[in-house]
Write a structure and sequence with these properties.
Helices cover 39% and strands 19% of the residues. By secondary structure, the protein is of the alpha/beta class. It folds into 2 domains: 117 residues, Enolase-like, N-terminal domain (Enolase-like, domain 1); 216 residues, Enolase-like C-terminal domain (TIM Barrel, Alpha-Beta Barrel). Strands 4, 5, 6, 7, 8, 9, 10, 11 and 12 form a 9-stranded mixed beta sheet that branches. Strands 3-2-1-13 form a 4-stranded antiparallel beta sheet. Helix 1 packs across helix 3, helix 2 runs antiparallel to helix 3 and helix 7 runs parallel beside helix 8. The mean pLDDT is 97. The structure holds magnesium ion.
Length: 363
């Protein structure tokens, strides 16, 4: 099989609600959608995304101008060969950022082709460790939601049967975070899973202080407490708290995860296939984590990560934020707190191309 054409289009999808965390405000999601055509008629679809106003057009250009010329004519089933061609030939401007986001979108499309060619859904192609994956909900815990909203949404999350709840933290006044956590834990009761996410906003000293204030809440993890480049800070925090440290959405490759593991700065691994170099790299990160008896709970894009978590023995959760619902044929259905991967060949994401077309913008 040969790749005969590579294209990338940019879509700006409005967010379903006003969302803020400790460092960002989301008013749209830029989706860079990649199509790979082949000489055997199988078309692969991949994507990456940005939640900030800058850089999405440059990702599109990277696919269209550089990656396209590198991989045209290659066999899309040889994903390792294609991946390394893109990785090595862009190394001067790559290893992270825009170049790796572009590479990720192409790699994800390769796996769509591979699954369709094998006539197997992705999770079965990858070994299918489980048929359903527990889901935790982040969508009720945004930092801009008032305490009353947070309480109401947590009640709704419990009613809906989600397997966990994550709230954003990072209010300037620590007492306010404490008050919100107290209210949420009271609704959840002692046994339901609760996590917090600081989106990199703290200093090491402040993270240690806040973690000590939160020991009583039996938190399942403390996510992105510090800026991603501060590995030693994460290690110091981890040594000071019983709360597991989770991160990975801001890391771009397996080497960065390796450094975190080697420095004992991480407890739960959260790679995002759209950001960490695609499915090829995501799988390597997940299997490396298994060597250290660590679990994997990927960041965001539940539609893509569902079959990946279903395929590995150390998979933990997928994260519920329904940001792609506006461009899907149907929303994902929660059953008893779990999602089940599609049994259709391919990635199993039910794209609605008519709906998607409404949001197309000129790169
Ligand atoms: Mg996060």
């Amino acid at each position: 099989m040969k790749i005969t054409n590579v294209s990338a289009d940019l879509y700006q999808i409005p967010v379903h609600r006003d969302m803020r965390d400790a460092i960002r405000h989301f008013n749209k999601m830029d989706v860079i959608f990649v199509r790979l055509e082949t000489d055997e008629g199988i078309e692969g679809h991949g994507f990456t995304y940005s939640i900030i106003p800058h850089g999405a057009r440059e990702i599109c250009t990277m696919v269209q101008s550089s990656l396209r010329s590198l991989i045209n004519g290659m066999n899309p089933l040889n994903n390792e060969q294609v991946w390394y061609e893109m990785w090595r030939r862009t190394d001067w401007v790559g290893r992270g950022g825009i170049a790796v986001l572009a590479l990720a979108a192409v790699d994800i499309a390769l796996w769509d082709i591979k699954s369709k060619a094998a006539r197997m859904p992705l999770h079965r192609l990858l070994g299918a460790y489980r048929d359903k994956v527990p889901v935790y909900n982040t969508d009720g815990g945004w930092l801009n939601h008032s305490l009353d909203q947070l309480v109401e949404e947590t009640r709704e999350i419990v009613r809906a049967g989600f397997r966990g709840t994550k709230i954003k933290v990072g209010k300037p006044d620590p007492a306010e975070d404490y008050e919100r956590l107290t209210a949420v834990r009271k609704i959840l009761g002692p046994h339901r899973t609760l996590m917090v996410d600081a989106n990199e906003c703290f200093t090491q000293a402040e993270a240690i202080r806040r973690a000590a204030m939160w020991e009583e809440f039996n938190l399942f993890w403390f996510e992105e407490p510090l800026p991603a480049e501060d590995i030693s800070g994460h290690a110091a925090l981890k040594a000071h708290t019983s709360i597991p440290i989770a991160l990975g959405e801001s890391l771009f490759n397996r080497h960065q995860f390796k450094d975190y593991i080697a420095c004992d700065g991480i407890s739960i691994v959260q790679p995002d296939a759209c950001r960490c170099g695609g499915i090829t790299e995501w799988l390597k990160i997940a299997h490396m984590a298994a060597c250290y008896n660590m679990q994997v709970s990927p960041h965001f894009v539940m539609e893509l990560h569902l079959p990946l978590v279903a395929s590995i023995p150390n998979g933990l959760f997928v994260e519920y934020i329904p940001s792609l619902d506006a461009v899907l044929r149907s929303p994902m259905i929660l059953e008893d707190g779990y999602f089940s991967p599609s049994e259709e060949p391919g990635l199993g994401i039910p794209w609605d191309f008519e709906k998607l077309a409404r949001y197309k913008v000129t790169p």
